[in-house]
Amino acid sequence: MRTSTCSLYIAADPARVWRAITDPGFTRRFYLGLAVESQWIPGAPIVYRAAAGPVPDVLHGDIVHVEEGGCWCTTCTPASASNKKCTAG
What we know:
The relative contact order is 0.17. α1 (14-22) packs across α2 (24-30). It is globular, with a radius of gyration of 13 Å. The protein is α+β, with helices and mostly antiparallel strands. Strands 1, 2, 3, 4 and 5 form a five-stranded antiparallel beta sheet that branches. β1 and β2 (45-50) form a beta hairpin. The chain contains two helices and five strands. The chain has helices spanning 14-22, 24-30; strands spanning 34-38, 45-50, 57-66, 72-74, 77-78. It has one domain (14-81): Alpha-D-Glucose-1,6-Bisphosphate, Chain A, domain 4 (2-Layer Sandwich). Helices cover 18% and strands 29% of the residues.
């Protein structure tokens, strides 16, 4: 399994950044048109869905760690790497 780590430092209020990464309306605007879905608790699925196209669940994984308004860690698999269809909610 390949592992990647990414850290971002954003000059914005933490509550505003949290909303930008957890609100599907914002992720559609800033994350290639993909809407995020998750319950944002450890063990919950996370899915990034396209509004249209041949692959509706573009990325999927699980929440590993989350601190509301702070950091978070997920697993992430592109739909092209698996036939799994995820459901978050």
